Amino acid sequence: MKRLYLAGFLLAAEAALAPGARAQTTAPAGRTVTGTVVGSVDRLAIPGVNVLVKGTNQGTATNADGRYSLPNVPAGATLVFSFIGYKSVERPATADNLDVALAADASGLDEVVVTAYNIKQDKRTLVTSVQEVQGKDLIDSRQTNVVNALQGKVAGVNITSSGGAPGEGASIVIRGGTSLDGDNQPLFVIDGMIMDNSSFQESTAPGGGSAFNGLLGRSVGASNRAGDLNPEDIASMTVLKGPAAAALYGLRAANGAVVITTKKGSAGRTTLNYRSQVSVDQVNRLPTTQGEYGQGALGLFDGTTRQSWAPTPA
């Protein structure tokens, strides 16, 4: 009987002490931190701001009103507030309510591009697709024709070269053509001056360069006018895509526009940069030519034709 009383006493003591013991071993639950995130200048709410407990993946985001609520924040934790275009802010979670003001990151807001009339504009304010290629990238391509230098550097641009010989022409089409027989090339603008990029042969036959009617229009290569530009003289090239480019330059820019800004002098110490490039082409094999007929047609000499149906010159 004494053993039964002793067992019952021990069970009762364990039941009385267990809640206290478990309360001492369980970590206290973190509190909920709430607040509002606004801009430091206009004091307007910023939605979508990431709020994370530093060193963990526990976090949340602000709602449309810029408010957030983050539960189970451990004592002594630090909250990190981050958003694109703003500088990240770290604040210790010392109170249940924590309001934060984010300052704009000026380093990412000064990207400008050159548009119509050689005017620089903030890239974020433009409604048309814009891509810019710096002059250094054009020089590194080692292309003597600036049109060929754009190959692979601008998305949605198709560049076709008439050949690999020095002085060969190149045509450029942005986002596909809009005409079968007409010129599909964009408008070229150099320091505010409009330039025609077509070749001499394109004006004599339809489809000589950028048309899609399948006609070659020429039997020999002809240089394009943009090939006259020295890549060393170009500071940047801005490619304007889409119909919105026509709003800047009119109907001639319906196929887009390529705005070229040349280098200019700057104040300071006088410097001189010189770079030389030499290329050598060697013919591997020449085609076999016939000597039976001379230039002409219908058995008569004609110096204006490309046919060879005249007697061999004596």
UniProtKB/TrEMBL annotation:
Gene3D superfamilies: Carboxypeptidase-like, regulatory domain, TonB-dependent receptor, plug domain. GO terms for molecular function: siderophore uptake transmembrane transporter activity. It is a multi-pass membrane protein. Pfam families: CarbopepD_reg_2, Plug. Belongs to the TonB-dependent receptor family. It comes from the Bacteria. This is TonB-dependent receptor plug domain-containing protein. Residues 1-23 form the signal peptide. GO terms for cellular component: cell outer membrane. It is found in: Cell outer membrane. GO terms for biological process: siderophore transmembrane transport. It comes from Hymenobacter nivis.
